[in-house]
Amino acid sequence: MGRALGTLGCCCLVLPLLLLPLPGARGSPHRPRRQPPPGGGRSGNGAAADAACKNRPLDLVFIIDSSRSVRPEEFEKVKIFLSKMIDTLDVGERTTRVAVMNYASTVKVEFPLRTYFDKASMKEAISHIEPLSAGTMTGLAIQTAMDEVFTEEMGTRPATFNIPKVVIVVTDGRPQDQVQDVAASARTAGIEIYAVGVDRADMQSLRIMASEPLDEHVFYVETYGVIEKLTSKFRETFCAVNVCAPGSHDCEQVCVSNGGSYLCDCYEGYALNPDKRTCSAVDMCAPGRHECDQICVSNNGSYVCECYEGYTLNPDKKTCAATDMCAAGRHDCAQVCLSNDGSYSCDCFEGYTLNPDKKTCSAADMCAPGRHDCEQVCVRDDLFYTCDCYRGYTLNPDKKTCSRTDVCAPGTHDCEQVCVSNGGSYTCDCYEGFTLNPDKKTCSRAITSSLITAEESCKCEAIAALQDSVTSRLEALSRKYILFLTRSSAYSSLLVF
What we know:
With about 500 residues, the protein is of the alpha+beta class.
């Protein structure tokens, strides 16, 4: 009936030297539900003190861890413990039935509930159990108990008999498989689980697998030396009336056995009401109750942590880290997003200004005073600008400053005769004897109105007559010359013929 598992080295079972109260468990250290009967009845062989329980039949399964960390002499003490436990029980087909399982990396059912109904046979079988060596597969062992031991075919009595199903797990290691869900399933199926830790046993794992209340179902011993201590503890437990059994108390959440009576308690995140029976959720987000870095959200007796806007929850589910608020899709800036320690602000490209909504941008007047570095003229060009100069000046190579130009250089003015430079500009003028026309560019011959003498008038007339005579004679000579050329040309033609 063994189930093979991956080989995993770990430690095994057993219960030693002193029984210590469970660290962090609610209530006082484990106390018996009822003390053993006082004095009397002891026979000559001392059997009275060790008398078996008579009042409560059980279907009891021991699950013992036998990984390699248990030395041979220690494993022998484990078997002695099992034998002594059997001695304290009222073993029989109609009373308490016992099964023993052995596990490490594999699980072995040493004998099921249906095999033995007398103590001698059980103890003989226990004496022949051998350790399985490596691994601590506690979850698999509990699952095997549910699947292969707590069945009617293997000796478990029907549910109608109302016989308690009990498991005692003894281990000195940390489970190397998932035990929480398996143990929860077993408890849901009505199996009461006791967890016994030895030496290096992981207490958190014991608490996870055990039934409530934990201080009555989790035991710890430091060495294998005084395992008998547990025998008396379990005898007290199994022989007492279970005042916290379902239906026997009126606690809303947790029943804590207290001698022959009980007290009510509440789950973590709840507080006991004044009626001492019911519970109310406490504010788990009150200062000092939580360990959230930023925001605590109360959640029905518990809490979850959250973060401020611009932060995300770290994998530890408690602390927060700033997110990149300028990542795509995280902001509503029209142009430029500036990250700022978990927040952000918007900005604009050059040539734009941020609108009052602090998100969108509008084109700026780049030629407004103070926005440009042109010396004379700023020319806006969409989102940018260029510099220019006044008439009579030219733009320097730096594209910003201007220098005076020669406005009267050829081709740079439209004066007909004379260009006069005038401080970066010019005016037109005319030669002597001409006057400037109204267009201020062209010139006309000047008409003089001065008086001349009779002598000067005669000279002028004589000169004019001479000029006319010379002109006439030159015209006559020209006609004669043309006639001469014509006749000479005709004569030459006749000679040719």
